[in-house]
Every structure is written in C-alpha cells, then in structure tokens.
Design brief:
single chain, mainly alpha, 35 helices, 8% strand, disordered C terminus
Amino acid sequence: MIKDENHTTLTRACPLSAINYVPTLYSLLDIRKEFLRVLKIHGDRLSAADVAMWLGMEEDDAISVGDALCVNQREEQISDREDEEDSICKVYSTVKKTYQYALVKSLRREIEERIKWYRGDTLEYAMTKQSSLLSDTIAQEMDLTSEDVMRLSHERIATSMVASINDHPYLEIQVLSSLSGVTSPTSLEKLFDKDLALVIPITRTLCQQGRLPGIVSSSSNNAVYTPNLFTHFQRNVIDSFFRTNGYITETKCVGAGLSRNRMECFVRESFPNAVLLSHSIIDSEVICQPLEVVIQTAILNDGYADLRSLIPLDVASNNDDVEQVINVCLVDSLKLQQDTATFHAFVKGTTLINTDIALFFSHEMSKKSVKMLDAEIERYSKQRAKEIIENKNGTGAVAGGKKGKPAVPTLESTAADVISLRDVANCIGNNYPNLFQSQQEYEEGSSCEASMSWNSDEVGRCDGPLIEFCRTVYSDVERKCTRAVRAEVASLNSTRHGVSVSDRAVGAAKQMDVQEEFETSFKDLCQLLQILAKTIENFSTRGLFTSAEISSMKRELLSGTGCCLARLLTEYCLYRNNVEGARALTFSHQDHNSTPAYLSALDFPSFSLQYNPAEGGKQKNPLQHLRESLPGSSGLNLVRMWNICSDGNDDDDGTKDADELLDQFISHLEDSCLTLVGIPFSVLDKKAEKKLLTSRRQGLIDCLEKSSQQDEILRTCVILIYQQTKSFMISGKTMTALVMNLFEQEKKIPTRVTEVLMDLKRDNDVSPELLHLVKQFGTAKNSKALAAISETSASLIQK
C-alpha cells in the first residue's frame, strides 16, 4: 500500500478477473468494489490469504485493506444509516483458528434465522435479553466467537432503534453524563434501572462514534461499560509484569480486573507468542531457555537436573502448569532446535513430575542405575536363598512346624521377598551424592515420614526425589526379585556336594537374564533372515536383477545374517553347557565382539570360528574342537551350520548354488534349533513381519539422526526410503547398492530425491545442509511427505 501527494491511500493489486492480468493501483473505494465482488462470488466468508489470492496482492496488504474497509463502513453506517447490503466485517473462525472477512448482511440473516428457530423471537427482543447461552450455541454452529455474534446483533439493534432513540433524546444525554467520568468497569443495569434495551445500543453507538472513551461488553444478564482509562491501566500493569518476568498468572490478571476468558487474548495483543497454561500465561522462550541449559548439562554429565527449581515459583505452584511447561512447551522448543540431539536425548531420558518435584534423569544415568540394581538383586537373592535353604534344612534360626519340626518354606513363599527400597536408594545415592542430599533435605522438611514401599498407594504422594526415581526406573523390581530368589533356591537345591552360594561366580538370576537376552536376539535374527530372503525372492520373481546379482545377495545374506545366527547359537551352547576350554574358541571381526543391534544393522558382519590354544598348546581345527566340546548331536549340528555359512562365503568360482545353500541353512535351523537350545526356529508370520519392520524403521531413524558419516547416512536413507515406499526390508552393502539403482524407475520416489542421493554418492565433500536434507528424506513418514520435502528443497538442490 502507498500514498500519493494528496495522502490518498492506493493499493497495488491484480485481480484474477482482470483481463490483462497487469498489476494496477486502486483507490480504497475501487478496491472495496473488488473486495465485495470476491466475497460475493467466492464465498460469504474468506480468510485474508484467500482474499489476497483472488485480488492478486500481498496478504499483509489484503489485511490492511480489509481492516480499513471494516472501520470506514462501521463509521458510515452509524452516521448515515447506510444499507448493510455492501457492508464488510471481520470475524474469527474458531475452527480454522484465523480471522476472516465476511458480508455483514449474510451473517446477520443467518443469526436471525437461528434465533427464530430456537426461540421464535425477533433479533431485537432476543439479544437485548442478553442470552449468553443462546449466543454461545449460535456461535458454535456458525464457527464464530460469542463476542462476534453479540457484536453483529447489537450493531443491528443500534441501527434499527435509531428512531426509538430519537423519541427519547434525554437518554443519550443521560448516558453521556453518567458514563463520562467513570474510571472503572460499570454495570449498565445497576446504573440505569429502566430503558436498558435502549441504553445498551445507545452506549455502543456513543463508543463507536468516539463520544464515549470505552467499550461495552456483554455477559449473561447484563452489559458492562469499561472506560479506556481502565483498559490502559490493565495494559500497563500486565505488559510490564509479563515483559519483566516472562509470565503472568491467572491470580495476577484477576487482581488487575481481567477475567480468565479475556486473559489470553489480552496478553497476546502485546505478546503474540505467549502460551496459555492451565492457570497462567508464559513466554515459552524465556521460561524454557534455562531448562534447556540444565538438561544439556545433565545429558553431557550422565546426571540429572532439577527442573522445578528453574520454573518461576508462581507457575511452579500449580502441578498442571509444570507438566505443560515441561511436556509441551519445553518439548516443542527442543524440536525447533537445529541440532535435534538434545531433543532425542530428552525423550530417551526419564522425566519425573510429582506434587513437589520435577526432575529430568538422563538415559545413561538410568542405565547405570539399573545395572546397580541388578547387582544388588543378585547379592540379595543369593543371601535370601541361602536363608531359605538353611531354614528348610532346619539349620536356621526360624522354627515353628508341627511337633517342633522346622517350617519348610515353599518356592511360592518367596513371592514377597523384595529388596529394601531404602537399601537400593542408598546404593544409588552413594554414586549420586547430590541426589542423595536432596532426598535427605526433602525428608527433613517433610511433615510426614517417607514411605519405603515400592508401590505407593496414595495418588500424587511424593516421598522425595531419590525414592521416586527408584520407583520409576525399577518398576518391575518385585518380579525381578521374586524370579531371582526362586532361581537361586532352585539352583541350590540342585547343587551337589554342598557348593555354597558365594562360591559361584555367576548367579542364577544372571543366567536367566542371559537366557532372556538370547531368546530375544535369536527370535529377531530368525525373522530377519526370513524377511530378507523373502525380499530377494521378490526381486527374482519380478526380474529386477540378473541371476548373478540375485546369487550375490543370497551369499551376502548367508555369510552375514547366517554367520550372526551361527555365532549366537555357538556362544549360547558353550555358555549353557559350561564347556571347559570354551575361551579357546573365538570369532573373527573383533570390531563386532559386542552384541550387534540386529534390528538397526545396515549390514551383518561375516564371522568365522577360530581356535586359539593356551600358551604351549597345539593348534587345532576349531570345528573339530567345537564338535568334541559339546555333548550328543549339538556339536555336529553347529559344525554343519558353520560349514554351510563358510560355503556361502566361498564365492570365488560360483560352483555352489546360493539358492540351495540358503534353503539348506534355513531347513537345518528348523530341524536342529529345538535340540540345540530348547527353542524352536521362529517361523515368520504377517503380524511378526509388520512389527519387525516397524521396529527396524525406528531403530534406523534413531541411528540416522545421530550419524555424521556420509556413507552411513546414504545407505541408511536408501534402506528407509525403499522400505517406506515398497514395504520391503533390505540390508547389506550389495543389496543396498543394487536397490539404489532402481530409484530412477520407482514412481513413488521423486526424481529430486534420487538426484540428491546420487550427488551424495559421487561427491565426497558435501555441505552439512545437504546431509540434513538427506536425513529428512530418510525420516519422511510416507510417500506424500517425501514428495513434499523434495519440492521444498529445490533451491538447496540448485546450490
């Protein structure tokens, strides 16, 4: 918008109805005609963005023009009683959460029709009775605010009642004299006993004309006049407090004469980014910034952070507000950061919000604490099992059976044997002295004694930061303790020659943990092997690759996933049978000695079994040593498994058919697993496949967001994009490279995505922005999201 030398406002626009589509300067009167035409043709209510589109102008200019037209027409209508046929008003859409411009006549006609339908009354009679329930109902149906409904109704009343006002000229003089000196909100009903139906529209008209400096607001059975002087006082008090402190509470607003209903919009007029909580309004940036700092410190130091102490006391006094600050405002703030590492670390951590505390514990601190508990449970279970056995044999101090015989506790009697919460808290506190000190200070300042029960029955009860942390992290402590004690008792009962509990290096509870970990990894690998074999079979059926390429993928699957399965089964059999000399057997690829994260692996390492004799010992065939070390057919079954894997890895002349070897390996697993480890081969079904695909996708996304290696980012994205668009899992360097060559042919994968990935593959030195873009491709939720990201990235690709 511009002004000429005569200070006439001109607007540059290019309406879609124009013949030559050339931008033109319009006066306010001319653009008003175009504005009305757009509303009448394209809908009685349009947002500023829609109006700007049809008028061919900037959205900000459309808002300025619309607001100017609304103000000018309101003044003209009051003074000249202009017909409302071409009147424009601005209303708020409660559904779309945006302001809209609308034709006044259309809205008022709909309001009158709804009033007559509900009550059979005329507009004047119904609205002068100030029925808030009726206006709220109509507002909800029409996607308006109650204030807009009341305003439109009263403006209509003011126009229709001019004749009545002229018949009572004394009323206008009386209203002016009574309200001119008012400095605080005043009830019109209390000030004027009679003629309220006329007083309200008169007062509104005087306010709109500027003869009364204030506004009239409606409630259920009354109307209140609020002078501008009082509004300015509210503005100064609330703005000054909010600007200084970064928040304001409901109590403070009420003290300044501002109701909760108006609190949010009043504050947002000066601070658009203010966030409404249950009992206060905050500046999210001001409140969350110190929280982000202490969270980053806690993550770096593998520690914890006290969040409540950094939230203003007036806000922190309400638990609902504290939860909203941390779980909504803080989370949103962390998401907006360019570096998402803090956000993901926060999500993985533990947030504890209770009546008196709000703490964040890093994921590493929780993991370390769980390991401490496992050690404590093992120590406790050995001690408790020894007591039970001694009592059972009559050697303990506990007696009390019939006829003087000692009581014989059963395994079921250990169900309540749970390690003391206080002992666990002390153990954790020894490693985190600040947390231990906070617990002591909390107990000293508390009016009631802290409960030492693992399960607190009282809702909302807080027994201190350390106690609550233990309860949260060790939610399954009772199950673990009961299982550990039962395992130790069973182990002692089966032990011969009086081996004491303290003589065993690994407790029975630990053995059960190993069993559970093996079962999970074994099941995952079995299903991964079948899903990947299914993918390769699909490639072969569709003729996407040559027979040599299909064979290469199968050999890679056998030497990768197959070897991982062989290693897992070998390690568990040696552990389970407590084989002497098991340490002489090792596996190549020492970089992968730790348990691989199978579900998020880009490819699986190829292991080989090796024999390392003790000092002075003779070299020996590792497969022969394995066969001799295990009883029965276990050794033979494992040796056959390793032979098939090694044949799959021996692809120098291609004499051994990969199809046959893969089928032999899966068939051998189906036949021998139950005998080897007591668990059958996990056959894949649709439900398990869907669950595994989801888990693998999430695991790969987590790895992708943390990765900074170009090759790793590229391969991870190729795997994620192909799984998301084609619903097939891929893995391994060979399969990933071959699949990437298919991207140009896939309709669901945008061309720009393929171009960016190819650039990343060719160029060894790319910008951080390009790597970030590729990560966005990999984490896209679906094909539509991938297409949207690729479209918005056009400028970056050109660079």
